[in-house]
Each structure stands twice: as structure tokens, then as C-alpha cells.
Amino acid sequence: MTPEPSPQSCPPPSPSPPPPTPPPDLTATRRSTHTAHTTHTHIAGIPLPDSALAREATDLIRDTTDELLYHHSRRVYLFGARHGRERDLPFDAELLYVAALFHSLGLTDRFHGSRQRFELDGADEARSFLAARGVPPARTRLTWQAIALHTTPQIPHRMAPEIALLAVGYELDVLGIGYATLPPDTRNEILTAHPRPGFKRHILRAYHRALAHRPETAAGTPQADVLARLDPDHIRPDFVRILEDSAWPE
């Protein structure tokens, strides 16, 4: 009869593998790792929203983006809000501010596995952020729409002021559209608070990193394809050329 092995002869059980690390929760407030910046209540005469929601959104974006995208997002708000104030448009400054902060979030490394358009990544995160804080669905939906449509030509300008103004701010900061209407003093004060050294070069690299793994999301409109095929004289607008040739020096 074969004796049973003693307990000492049994190998100890293998330790359980550690649980996988969950992705960072963007709806949680974390300490900012950015270089400290002076807190402003107004920049170039434009008030910055200072509600608890706006402050929490600012802290979150400063902690989850780099200096390039943080400063870009704040400039987009300032340019959009200035445009709205100049035209006496009734807009929700807090909503526009949150939309501006989240609009380029899809360009960050967190979404380099995403297969949807980068605009949708930022829009979805903003929706989750606002819904988790009890923001009414109508305001949440408007924020989502503003971010999702901010790179779409013409259409945002026919929609709610917050949607239109986010597109205006984005187009001015990235493509220089409306640059000539910006007084030099206003421009200099905004750039002092939120500088853009090498912005043209760095934002193109950020777009490339975000799009290289999902090129299908960068397709143009069907109408552009029709013109390219049937109109031998058609010249497609070139986003990169417009950006590089804009009046912004860098």
C-alpha cells in the first residue's frame, strides 16, 4: 500500500496574481502635477467660471493632460467667450468652459486604444463627468454636442451658442480664423496667461499620435470624395496647410 504523502511534501499553492490595474478614473479629482499657475478670475477682461464644477473640471484636466492641451483648452474658452460677449450672445459660460476643457481630451495617451473619433472620446468623458455631478441632462447633452462637433465646419455655427462658441474658439486657436479681429492687447494678455510656444508643431504631433492607430476616423466627407473624382480642378482644403500658414507666429 502506497503511503500518502505527508503535508510537508506538498508544494505550497501558487499565490494568486494581482488584480489588473483599472484605467484611471477621470471623474475623480486628483492632485495636479502641472507647473503651478497663477489663479485668474479674469483674463483680458473675460471672466473665468469659478463654480465648484468649474474648479473641479480645471483640476481634473490639469492632472490628465499636458501643458500643450491645457493651455490650448483655456485659450479656446477665452476666444469663444470673448466672441460671445462681443456679440451679446446669451451663453452658459460654465458649460462653455467645461466643454473647452474636455474638447481635446481624446488626444491624450489614455485614448490611444480607442477606435472612435477623438472628439467622441472627449465628449463621452465630459458627459460622464457632468452626469456624475448631477448636472441636468439637457446641459450635459449640450456639452456633449459642442465637443463632438467642434471640428465640423459650418454646422456648429447654426446651433446653440455654446456649441457655436466652442467651434469659434477652436478655429481661432488652431486655424487662425478670426485672428485679425483680435485686438493685440487682448491677444497678448491671453498668451501671457496661456502661452503657445511651438504650438503649431506640437499640436500636429498630438493629432498624429491620436489618429495613427485609428485612421478610419479621419476620413473626409463623401462630397469631398465626389469632387476629387469628378472635378479635375478641385483642390481639397488642407487642414495642415491652413494651420501652418495661419497668422499665428507659432
UniProtKB/TrEMBL annotation:
Q: Which Pfam families match?
A: HD
**Domain of life the protein comes from:** Bacteria
Locations of Basic residues compositional bias?
31-40
Pro residues: compositionally biased ranges: 1-25
Q: Which residues form the HD domain?
A: 70-155
> Which residue ranges are recorded for the region named Disordered?
1-40
Q: Extract the InterPro entries matched here.
A: HD_domain (IPR006674)
Any idea what this protein is called? Phosphohydrolase
Q: Which organism is it from?
A: Streptomyces chrestomyceticus JCM 4735
What lineage is on file?
Bacteria, Bacillati, Actinomycetota, Actinomycetes, Kitasatosporales
